[in-house]
Design a protein that fits this description.
With 254 residues, the chain is an all-alpha fold. It has one domain (33-253). Helix content is 78%, strand content 0%. It has eleven helices and no strands. The protein has helices at 2-15, 30-58, 64-78, 82-96, 100-108, 114-133, 139-158, 171-175, 179-197, 199-224, 229-253.
C-alpha cells in the first residue's frame, strides 16, 4: 500500500503543482515510477472532476466566452504549463533542427522561437474553440475525461520507448515503463470512458488514440533517436485537443 501511495504522490506532483503531504525524491525506487504511470489516468480524472466542479460553480456567474477562458487558464496553471512548454519546444526542434543532435540541442534551449509560440497559440485556440463548441450534456463528460485521456496517452507514449539522453525529467518514467503499466492505465481510462460515453466510443477512443500515439512516437524517434519529456508534452496536448474536438461525435456512436 505504501508503494501505491508513493506512486500516486509521484504522479500527482509530476503532473500538477498542487502540493501533497508526502513528497517523493530523486532516489525513488523503479517500482515507484512504474506505479506512478499506472496512476496517471487517476490524476487525470481528479483534474477532470475539478474542471466539472468549477464549470458548474461558475456557469451562472460568467458568459460561456469568459467561463471557458477561466477554465483553460486554471487548467494550464494547475498543471504548471508543462505540456504547453513541451509542445512549443517540440515545434521549434522539429522545424529548426536538421540532425538528431541539432534537434536535441534546440530542446535544451530554454528560449521559445516564433514557430513554437505560433504552435502554442494555435493549440490553445483550438482547445478553446473545442470547449466553446461542446453541447450541453456532452460538456461535463468531455471535461471529466479529457485530462484522463491525455495522461493515458503519456503512458502509451513511454511504452517501449527510448530516452535519447543520459538523464532528464522524463527519463525515469520511460526507463521503468512496461506493458503492465500500459494495460492498467488503459483499463482505468477505458472504464471511465465506458461509463461516460458508452463502450463503443471508449473502444474507438482507445484504439484510435493508441495508433496515433504509437505512430507519432515511431516517427519522432526517427528524428531524434527517442522521446523526451517535451515530446510527451506535445503528445498530451495533441490527444486532449483531438478528444475535445471529437467529443460531440462520440455521443452519436454510443
Amino acid at each position: 500500500m505504501r508503494n501505491v501511495w508513493a506512486g500516486f504522490a509521484l504522479a500527482w506532483q509530476f503532473l500538477t503543482i498542487i502540493p501533497l503531504p508526502t513528497r517523493w525524491t530523486a532516489e525513488a525506487l523503479p517500482s515507484t515510477f512504474a506505479f506512478a504511470l499506472r496512476c496517471f489516468p487517476v490524476v487525470g480524472f481528479l483534474l477532470g472532476l475539478g474542471l466539472v466542479f468549477l464549470d458548474q460553480l461558475l456557469e451562472q456567474l460568467f458568459s460561456p466566452l469568459v467561463l471557458n477562458m477561466i477554465l483553460l487558464s486554471l487548467y494550464v496553471g494547475v498543471t504548471g504549463g508543462l505540456h504547453q512548454d513541451g509542445l512549443a519546444d517540440t515545434v521549434d526542434a522539429l522545424a529548426g533542427g536538421t540532425t538528431p543532435e541539432h534537434r536535441l540541442e534546440i530542446f535544451r534551449d530554454s528560449h521559445i522561437g516564433a514557430l513554437g509560440v505560433t504552435g502554442l497559440v494555435l493549440s490553445l485556440g483550438l482547445r478553446y474553440a473545442g470547449l466553446m463548441a461542446l453541447p450541453a450534456g456532452v460538456r461535463e463528460l468531455a471535461l471529466l475525461c479529457m485530462p484522463a485521456v491525455g495522461r493515458w496517452s503519456l503512458v502509451m507514449g513511454v511504452w517501449k520507448s527510448v530516452y535519447p539522453r543520459v538523464e532528464g525529467l522524463a527519463a525515469s518514467f520511460i526507463r521503468n515503463s512496461s506493458s503492465v503499466e500500459s494495460v492498467v492505465a488503459t483499463l482505468i481510462v477505458g472504464v471511465g470512458l465506458g461509463v461516460a460515453f458508452g463502450p463503443v466510443p471508449a473502444v474507438i477512443v482507445l484504439g484510435v488514440g493508441s495508433l496515433l500515439v504509437r505512430g507519432y512516437v515511431w516517427w519522432i524517434s526517427k528524428k531524434i533517436g527517442g522521446i523526451t519529456g517535451d515530446i510527451l508534452g506535445s503528445i498530451n496536448e495533441g490527444v486532449e485537443i483531438l478528444f475535445v474536438l471529437c467529443a460531440p461525435m462520440l455521443v452519436l456512436l454510443a
